Amino acid sequence: MIRPLALLLLTPAPLAAEPLEIPALAGVAAGRVVTIADADHLASTYADGVLNPDAGAVDRLTVLTAGAEGWHAATAPVSNSVTAAPEILAVDAPGAMAYVVERLGPREEGVANARDLRPGTRLFAIDLDSATVTAEATIAALPEALALAPDGDRIATVSNPPEGAVLRITAIEGAGFGATRSVPLRALGIAGGAPHTAGGLTATNVQWHPSGEALALNLTTQDRVLFLRETDAGWRVWGEAVETGRDPFVGRFTPDGGWYLTSDWGRDFTATDLPGRLPEQSAAISVIRVGDLADAAPAHRRVGSALTDMAAEGLAISPDGTRVATINMRGTTLPEASGRRDRMASVSLLAFDAATGALAKIADSPLDGALPEGGAFSTDGAHLLATVYEPHPEADGTPESGAGLAVFRVTPEGLTPQGRVPLPRGTHHVAIAR
Predict the structure, then answer these.
(1) Where is the signal peptide (predicted)?
(2) I want to staple 308 with a disulfide (CB 3.0 to 4.6 A). Which of 79, 123, 348, 376 is the partner?
């Protein structure tokens, strides 16, 4: 018997033996779809600090596994926070293991406001066959993002504790973790003020070069990207940092490693409230030409940019490198009193030419829901999946306006809605494996 997915996502559970009917995923090339959800924050928490009244709600990871007769679902409690970039979840190439960092720790008894949540310090390993946490590692406080090395043997994390931004490389051993190496950015000569302030040293994204020999770090409050290379003496700065547009929150290498794209959100870090911080103009993508790996002192350079839409946070690049997407919150998190709250978020689809670095918008597509953040292309690039954190306050209550994954078909003209996968409220990041 094929059962509806929504009935099986009410409580954490191991892999469902019976197949599930998920119409929105029909034809989507994916062996596994993995998502992460934050149970504590509401979309409105960014404005008022008030956490979910349901203090017993649990952060969770959901794994959907494709089978011959349908999909199989499982969930596991895994601490995480939407306050990080949509870069806190990674899945290995076989789809066997997932990795998650927690920017803020679990809600403790009596805590009702986000300011009282303690900093997170943990990196988790999750076996996706059994939907169980198999290992935890302690890392620097307030981790913002992680990235799994191409060969799956190491994981990079960036954190922003009060003492300054730090990169950490942790070895992966089986279903657990091995040795770790900490690299404070100040030790590399990277200066800046307090994290999360204008001009401060705040690292919000880390990505491996497809070769596994270099890393890119987004220094979002300094409007630049730093490239690092591993040497016999350890990790060292590789070429000059590259200036981007304002607030390069996240970034991605293209599959060939020749380019690095950043989503420049455009926030005002001097503002004291949410309406002041969130921009009223469209975000943009910066296109950076990455130097040759054979060059010890390459001249990375920004060659262009393209507008997307307001409050673009998540960034995805198709497996063939020809399509780029941003997930745009617009004003869906703003309070009604601001006069700028939007009912609809959006997804921008752009075309990329790896020969020239040219990037051009194809179209913006509306997305019903509040606080959409993460997105990922299917393994063949024919579909795009975008997370929806929660329904908009004026939503009609149908599954098509609820929390979960909005699924789009990629066409030459843009994105065509295919349906929505109902998932726990708070879903904010998605990863896909073959």
Answers:
(1) 1-16
(2) 348
CATH T-level fold of 3-433: Methylamine Dehydrogenase; Chain H (2.130.10)
b/e map of 66-87 (b: 16 or more CB within 10 Å)?
A: beeebbbbbbbebbbbbbbbbb
Q: Is 326 helix (H, G, I), strand (E, B) or coil?
A: strand
113-119: Cβ within 8 A, 24+ apart: 113/49, 113/50, 113/51, 114/40, 114/41, 114/45, 114/49, 114/50, 114/51, 114/83, 115/49, 117/40, 117/51, 117/81, 119/161
Q: How far is CA 4 from CA 7, 18, 90, 108, in A?
A: 6, 11, 27, 33
Nearest residue to 315 via CA among 368, 391, 377, 357: 377
pLDDT tens-digit series, residues 197-211: 766 889 999 999 999
pTM, full prediction: 0.95
- Name residue, tokens 């943990």: 122
Q: Are 137 and 154 in contact (CB under 8 A)?
A: no
Mean pLDDT across the chain, nearest whole number?
93
